[in-house]
Each structure stands twice: as structure tokens, then as C-alpha cells.
Design goal:
The structure holds two protein chains of two kinds. By secondary structure, chain A is an alpha/beta fold. Chain A is built from one helix and eight strands. A three-stranded parallel β-sheet of chain B has the order 1-3-6, with no helix packed on it. In chain B, strands 2-5 form a two-stranded parallel sheet. The chains are: A alpha/beta, B alpha/beta.
Chain lengths: ~110, ~130
């Protein structure tokens, strides 16, 4: 599975948000050239990447759940987006803390 | 780390981290961690630090993002679907589970921000968002 961004959309401007408890995120079996984009934010849910190629961040595994990064996965933090205005305020505040989390958790 | 046995205390330490846990597949990684050659060194170590502030930030960010009013709502996402967003904030609410095996297209501009709110009630232990081959 791959995502295609067009028109100038940036990976760092995409947030996949799974709030609270519940089902998780499964990214796996991606082939060469396939990429998924964005910050996958599921602080209290499972996240599994198994041969997942992510241009973004994986943040999850709280409340007894797991953040699993298995073999073949490539997690690459995208370039930081300059904050262009109020519409980015929320994402900017979120990613400030999340960048630190990624550095500690994502392999 | 020269052999899987030495990984055990490392995994135990990592498992104490408050938000995430690393799940090593030692059958995969053993060959790689055993390739240290003579004269080489492994620097660094395992550090246990208080991440409670970052955990709080992550939960706060998620809660704030979940509270945004949607600009588009879907029951799920389909193979090959194109999500078209405008400049600025685009909040895409998805009420059901999503499984994609081929492609998803996201189009907008360099000033577009997309927040996908996955609101399925699927319980823990199952997947709300599956992206796979």
C-alpha cells in the first residue's frame, strides 16, 4: 500500500489521530517504493510496523499497549514544517513534544 | 550486545518506559547483533529517563486533535480514493475501520494540513487502521 501526496502536501502536515483506548494501527508488508506519510498518533493504542515504510512518526503504546517496530521497517522523520499561521498551531504544538518521543521510541 | 542472552536485561529496562515498549525479534536480530568485529566498540548505553511530560503532551495533542470539527466525514477510506484538501486545516473524520492495500491519494497545497480523526469504536486488540500489501 502506498500513499501519494500531490500539490505540495507535506508528510509533516498529516496527522493520523486515534484518541483514547481502542483498536490500533497496523502498517506492514510494504514493498520497495511504497511509503505511508504522516504522524501516527495513538498514545493509548497498539501500533505495529512490520516492513512498514513510514515518512513520519509513530507514537503509541501507552496504557499497556505496544509500539512494535519489526524488521524491515523504515521510520524516517520528515523535515519540519515552518509554522505558517494559526492553522498549523495545533499540529505544531503537538509535534513539538512528539518529536522528542520519536527520537526515544522510534527505531 | 553480542548474543541474545545479553539482550534480556536491556529489554527489561526498555519495557519500563512509560509509553512505549520495544518488541525485539531475537531470531531476526541475533545475527546482526553478533557481528561486532575485533577492535570495534559499542558506545552509548541504555538510559532510563522520565518521559511523563512527553506522554502528557502526546495525550493532550491527541485529545485536542480529536476535538476539531470535521471538514469532511467518511465511513471509511477506499482503495485509490483521493482526499482533496484546501489551504489551511482540513479535518477528515472517519467513523469506521480503514483497511487499505493499494493506494490513497492526498492532494492539497504546501499550506494544507490534514488531521485524520479515526473514530471507529473497534476494541483494543483489533485494528482501526490497517495499511498493508
Amino acid at each position: 500500500m502506498t500513499m501519494n501526496l500531490s500539490g505540495g502536501v507535506l508528510a509533516d502536515s498529516i496527522l493520523w489521530n486515534l484518541n483514547g483506548l481502542g483498536g490500533g494501527v497496523d502498517i506492514q508488508a510494504m514493498a520497495e517504493g511504497q511509503t505511508v506519510f504522516g504522524t501516527f498518533l495513538a498514545p493509548d493504542r497498539d501500533i505495529l510496523s512490520d516492513h512498514g515504510i513510514v515518512d513520519g512518526r509513530l507514537i503509541g503504546g501507552g496504557s499497556g499497549n505496544l509500539l512494535n517496530v519489526h524488521s524491515g521497517s523504515e521510520i524516517t522523520a520528515p523535515s519540519t514544517v515552518p509554522d505558517g499561521g494559526s492553522t498549523l498551531a495545533l499540529l505544531g504544538a503537538a509535534l513539538l513534544g512528539l518529536t522528542g518521543l520519536k527520537r526515544r521510541f522510534a527505531v | 550486545m553480542k548474543n541474545p542472552k545479553e539482550m534480556s536485561p536491556v529489554i527489561k529496562r526498555l519495557s519500563r518506559l512509560p509509553l512505549a515498549r520495544f518488541d525485539f525479534d531475537l531470531t531476526d536480530s541475533a545475527a546482526q547483533v553478533a557481528t561486532q568485529t575485533a577492535g570495534s566498540a559499542i558506545n552509548g548505553g541504555v538510559h532510563q529517563i522520565d518521559l511523563s511530560g512527553l506522554v502528557k503532551d502526546a495525550r493532550s495533542a491527541s485529545t485536542a486533535a480529536a476535538a476539531l470539527a470535521p471538514t469532511q466525514t467518511f465511513s471509511t477510506l477506499s482503495e485509490g480514493q483521493t482526499i482533496v484538501g484546501g489551504a489551511g486545516l482540513n479535518v477528515i473524520r472517519i467513523t469506521g475501520d480503514v483497511t487499505l492495500k493499494t493506494s490513497l491519494n492526498i492532494t492539497g497545497s504546501a499550506s494544507s494540513t490534514f488531521v485524520f480523526q479515526l473514530r471507529s469504536s473497534t476494541a483494543d486488540g483489533h485494528d482501526v487502521l490497517s495499511l498493508m500489501a
